[in-house]
Amino acid sequence: MLSIAWDPLYAHPLPENHRFPMLKYELLPEQLLREGIITEASLFVPKPLAAAEILRTHHEGYYQRLLAGQLTRQEERATGFPWSEQLIRREVTILGGTVECARRALEHGIALNVAGGTHHAFADRGEGFCLLNDQAVAANYLLAHAPGIRKILIVDLDVHQGNGTAALFQQEPRVFTFSMHGARNYPHRKEQSDLDLPLADGTDDATYLQLLGQTLPRLLDAVQPDFVFYLAGVDVLATDKLGHLGLSREGCRQRDELVLRQCQQARVPVVVCMGGGYSVRIADIVEAHVNTFRLAAELFG
Q1: Which keywords belong to this entry (predicted)?
Q2: How many domains does the chain have?
Q3: Alpha-carbon torsion, ordered 161, 24, 204, 300, to 10 deg
Q4: The domain that contains 177 carries what CATH number?
Q5: CA dist 5 to 102, 226, 263, Å?
Q6: Which domain, by its residues, includes 206?
Q7: CA angle (133 as vertex; 211, 221 as ends), nearest 5
Q8: Which of 44, 151, 161, 222 could make an SS bond with 181 (beta carbons 3.0 to 4.6 A apart)?
Q9: Reported pTM
Q10: Distance (Å, rounded) from C-alpha 289 to C-alpha 301?
Q11: What is the spatial distance between Cα 2 and Cα 104, in angstroms, rounded to a whole number?
């Protein structure tokens, strides 16, 4: 049975230009239940993560100002979110979800967070609708608390480069960061991941899948990770308003299958976070995400 982190807070109302994509956090679990891919027992409500664990990754001064609503106007504009106590509870709960998913993946092979993938958050600041970096926090949690975890691979296939994640682990040899993203997309100033594969606008299914299929098996063999975090953003779709790539829903599904099957065959536990998705039709976003869960159920269920 899959373990899936979800909380009603995930659908926290945000500014008008982000209310539409936030609908997926309500619709995704509903669709999974409707199709019988999961049962209610598959869902767990995560607890907000303790500050001590957050501070393994984020600077205390930044975190305290975030809690107190003391970000400057410039900092708030960079995040894209107006501050509220409920927003911060949401972010800390997402962190708790990804950390709990990591614990459960160690036992069951896989766990998924309906939210997460906040890869633009740095140690001392937020950017691009990311305030705290959930996969980085969970990776540091495992390195601190799971003795068998000596090497972690982060596979970031969101259309945007995981700049915050790359910066956080540039001096950490136990975490290998891999980002495959739109070359001309946000962020305009890229950080250096351990491996970056920038893609041209309009990259189609065949080109994308060939490159990923050539890269990921070799990477797993070279890195020999004990754990994988996978950021499965669906903003790679051709229908995405912000992505500028050319993948179909079937191509996106094959991408997920490639990653999850490689992890399964290598017997490496994996946590999946949903990342971005801004297609014009909410059905395209939800269906692409549902495919990720279908595959997880088929391969690991």
Answers
A1: Hydrolase
A2: 1
A3: 90
A4: 3.40.800.20
A5: 11, 22, 20
A6: 4-300
A7: 35
A8: 161
A9: 0.96
A10: 17
A11: 9
DSSP the chain: ---EE--GGGG----HHHHHHHTHHHHHHHHHHHHTSS-GGGEE-PPPPPHHHHTTTS-HHHHHHHHHT---HHHHHHHTS---HHHHHHHHHHHHHHHHHHHHHHHHSEEEESS---TT--SS--BTTBSS-HHHHHHHHHHHH-TT---EEEEE-SSS--HHHHHHTTT-TTEEEEEEEETTSSPSS----SEEEEE-TT--HHHHHHHHHHHHHHHHHHH--SEEEEE--STTBTTBTTT---B-HHHHHHHHHHHHHHHHHHT--EEEE-----BSSHHHHHHHHHHHHHHHHHHH-
pLDDT-based confidence at 23, cuts 50/70/90? confident
For residue 98, the one-letter residue type is T
The sign one gets for the Cα dihedral 138, 139, 140, 141 is positive
pLDDT tens digits, residue range 224-239? 999 999 999 999 999 9
Query: Which amino acid is located at 202 in the chain?
Result: G
Q: What is the pLDDT of residues 40-76, one digit of tens each?
A: 999 999 999 999 999 999 999 999 999 999 999 999 9
- β-pair partners for 240: 279
